[in-house]
Amino acid sequence: MNAVKTLRALNPEQFARAVRLLLNPPPGSRIEAAKKYGIDLTLLIEQLRLTPAQRAVKLQAATEAVEQIRGIARRRS
Amino acid sequence: MQFDRAIQALCDAQVDFVIVGDLAGPFHGSSYATYLMEFCYARSSANMLRLVAALSPFHTRPRGIPAGLPFIWDEATLRNSTVLTLQTDLGEIDLLAEVAGIGLYEDVKRHSLTVEAFERRVPVLDLPALIRSKRAAGREKDLSIIPELESLLETGSE
Questions:
Q1: Residue A35 falls within a domain, yes or no?
Q2: Which of A55, B116, B132, B158 has the most crowded CB, counting CB atoms within 10 A?
Q3: Contact call for B34 and A40, based on CB within 8 A
Q4: Distance between CA A75 and CA B131 in Å, rounded?
Q5: pLDDT above 70 covers what percent of chain B?
Q6: Domain assignment present for A4
Q7: Structural domain of residue A51, as residue ranges?
Q8: Does a structural domain hold residue A59?
């Protein structure tokens, strides 16, 4: 049976490489295509700065914040 | 929306599942937020019983139907449906027997990684498989996420 791999945070070298690629996408790359498509690549840099666990917590916090705003809006309407 | 409690409940009940869909993206670095939890699960009788038990405390019921209609949350309900769209006290949950472009749970599991999150070890669909599933789903909302996911793959984030 194959061992399941673990998704980990990028190490400093991997993160530096990712930042270089995202700030200066190589011509013809998928990253360049995404930039042209309108993706804000700086958001990815901030995400990749975090561990996968921190990204999960950030998502949870974001959805909770939106739900609170929705609740306030419902109570005012 | 309580991703943490839902994931903890499934892990603690030893349910065989994998996080798929939009909820898998942020673990890999996607900036897209989602309000839907999508899980692919093993269809063995024992696993479906564990899944039913795990979600029973959270008033699990079908999404989008009038309140008060009779609904029984049990293994038979799971067995008779390959896609269940549910509303729970923890938020909206989709339970999938199969993922487009990947296959059944065993195939999905082969294309998963483990993430340490919410104080548990959680299986999440890997990035190449997530991109494949989005492409296979083919809806506009799925296709629009692919450029970002492909960028993450190209950075070597996984």
A1: yes
A2: A55
A3: no
A4: 39
A5: 99
A6: no
A7: 12-76
A8: yes
Q: What is the mean pLDDT of residues A11-32?
A: 97
Domain tally for chain A? 1
The B-side interface with A (CB below 8 A) comprises 1-4, 23, 26-31, 33-35, 110, 112-118, 123-124, 126, 147-148, 150-158
Q: What value does the mean pLDDT take over residues B76-89?
A: 95
- Give the A window 18-77 contacts with B, CB below 8 Å: 18, 21-22, 29-31, 33-34, 37, 39-41, 43-44, 46-48, 52-53, 55-60, 62-64, 66-67
Taking only the tens place, the pLDDT of each residue in A22-55 is: 999 999 999 999 999 999 999 999 999 999 999 9
The answer to whether the beta carbons of residues B90 and B58 sit under 8 Å apart is yes
Q: Residues A18, B155: contact at Cβ < 8 Å?
A: yes
Q: Which chain A residue has the Cα nearest residue B5?
A: A60
B47 DSSP β-pair partners:
none
The predicted structure's pLDDT at residue A72: 78
A1 belongs to a structural domain: no
pLDDT tens profile B43-73: 999 999 999 999 999 999 999 888 788 899 9
Query: What is the edge-to-edge ordering of all strands in the sheet holding B36-41?
Result: B61-62, B83-88, B91-96, B36-41, B17-20, B120-125, B112-117
**B120 → chain A, closest CA residue:** A53
